[in-house]
Amino acid sequence: MVLALSRASLCRSLPQGTACLPSVRTYANSPPGQQGQFKIQNVKGSRKSKVNKTFSRKNRIGAFRSMNPSQLTVPVLQPRPSLSMPSFKPELMTENMIGQVVAFNQTLNDPIKYFGTPKNMLLEFRLLSQRCSVIRNITILTTEELNSAASEPSHKTRYVLTGPSGCGKSFLLLQAVQYCLAKEWIVIYIPRAKTTVNSTTTHVYDLRTQTYLQPNYAQQTLRRILEVNSANLQTLTMRDGLSYERRSFSSGTTLAQLASAGSKDPAISSVVLETLLTELCRQSKIPVLLAVDDFQSIYNQKTSYRDPHFSAIRPYHLAIPRFILEFASGKRSFPKGAIIGALTAADPAFPVTNELMDELGVPGVHPRSPYSKRSKILQEYARGLRNLPVPTEFSPREAASVFETWMRDNALTAPANDELFLAKYTESAGNPKAFVWQGILGTLEGAAPVVNESTSWPQLREGRI
Amino acid sequence: MNILRSQICSVLRRPLYRQLTTTARPFVPPAQLVFHDNLYVPGAKELDDSTVEALVGETNEQEPEDDEEDPNDDRDKPHPDSPNFYTGRSSYYDNIVELQNAISRTRGTLQRLHLLPLPDFARKSLQPMPTVWKTPEEMTTDFETNMTISRYRRVTTLLNELNEYLRIATTAGYADVADRIGSIISIFESGKKEAFLSRGIRKPVLLDQHGRSYTFGKRKTSAARVWMIPVKSSTHETISDVNVEEVFGLSNEHKRSPVNVTVSTILVNNIPIAEYFPQPVDRERIVRPLKVAGVLGKYNVFTIVRGGGTTGQSGAIAHGIAKGIFAHEPETGLVLKRAKLLRRDPRMVERKKTGLAKARKRYTWVKR
Q: In chain B, N or C terminus with fewer CB closer than 10 Å?
């Protein structure tokens, strides 16, 4: 039994071929400066024992010892050159930029940070080194529509982005949000409208409005609107005063002050949000964009909420979905602005309903007949929505740009060549989500096996798999 | 019926150069021979005039008196067609004899032409001529005898030897000798020779008037019908971005001219491949033949697949695509074969056996 010798030196003194004695174990010693890091101070029983045990968990951090960065020679871990891509600007929205990847830089009022994004997009941005997206021809089309909508009431520009699963509707919506924000619009972006109807946020029945208020969600929304649009909101003022629950706002207060008051107190947040929207409906100085992802979830007749009689609450009886429905149907309208919604094609909990499909002219998976169930109220709320179909597939150019972006981010396990690109493009049939998630990120193809000429075994020499 | 008799008489009976001492004559019994004075008759003596007159008188007397025909008189009886009549299998033995004659003549010919005996190296370089002889049943009808194994073997041995001489003659370039042997051999060759020799060889797939190939692929219990047509490369979209530096020649980068890239569309039961096969492994399996052959983006593929599950259907489509690529481009045959893509995967679900729970799984072993 070796006691006095240190274990590391023992192993070094042995010839290389021999195995270490079973009683002697080697563990990484903690770095010199961190010897006492995990020692418990001033506790009884923490004295060092005189007998050195062969195995002791003290002063050990397991098998981990951080390596010097210069020792990292694996190619994957080499510092990669930073992606040099242009940042998203409204001036870049031209025909010759189709197929170019642009980055969403972090600004003070970054909508991605404050409003959030749908879950898939969030994961993708986490994997990428920079948050970016590719400009497609539909992007140019949408920006042209928004340019023309900047001077018209919002009830004239109500679009719904449709298309099969994974064709890029959410990304297009985010691009529209970024564009409008860069153009100094007021932007209200609700990335996951599903959360307003799936019973994850508090709902309180309000006798005055005879609807269910969602105070916490209203508070969050006000906070987000304020963070992103603070500059614009400070220029706008209230026309009428508001007094509610011992809080009063005079007629000249800026909308920013109103919103900040509402974002701090959930008790008044619902009313403040309603007032804010009313004031925005009155002012005609700054255009307003209301962008809603998961648009079909608020058109489902039954939400996940239950009333005291255990019947499902309708979406138009909940405060937040109701105001979205009102703006989407044109019953309320911003004097300047647009309403854009994006469907989520493959959500079984909140599918695209017959009323929406009828209005948008979308064929749908199952055949519909005049006898299928439809709600008159929701049909009313869906009237006037226009379909903006998103192309189902990337053009080869756009796909190539996306491929290069992931390639530069070291996301490829296989050698990056045109064969891999074409194979993945063909397999995914150009579908953006399938191309990125199942093609680039989900492939098991690796580097081709290299024939080792120096081995004496012929089967290895021939490189047989 | 000696089917060879007429052939042989016309073809081979004509001797090549040897002069026969005797001429061929039909068989006549000696009693009927009529001798003239000038002719030589073996063992005949000089007869007196009186003896000759007496003999002539005798014959003259007998002829008008004999009105009835003697049944044992051999003068008018029909002769048997073949000398092997009394074997009972005249046709069979006639053919055997003719074949043996043909072999001996040909051997003689080839020996005189110094083609026999052939050294080993020359024998190895002979042109291969696989033959398929008639079946014993067919020969039975031809020879009018029951072709037992030994009789069939005897005939085929002779025919194989003749075939060897045919090979030698064709390889040496003696077309007339080869033709003569070939005419004999062709009588005994089976009508299904072409079909038998071409068994297992891939039939070439033809492209239709639009340049489409139609191939079949199978895997497990799935079957796929695959149509492939080359993609028409239209004029590519003009890139209208004007790089000012390049225009003025100030750019340092060497910019390559844009390549027109065509992409393949694969439709399975009229549904895009990404929608029909959600699993990436199925999609990769289908695209693999295009990758291996290096023709990604060259062909559009339309498939109708039936039967089986996802793996079977994707394997069947891949098989069909590989055959289609081979039809369009035969040069890719070697690389597709090495990748085992042209092979119909023979693995099928193994049957359940009695006494076993499944194909291989045994029931739990119980000690007692």
A: C
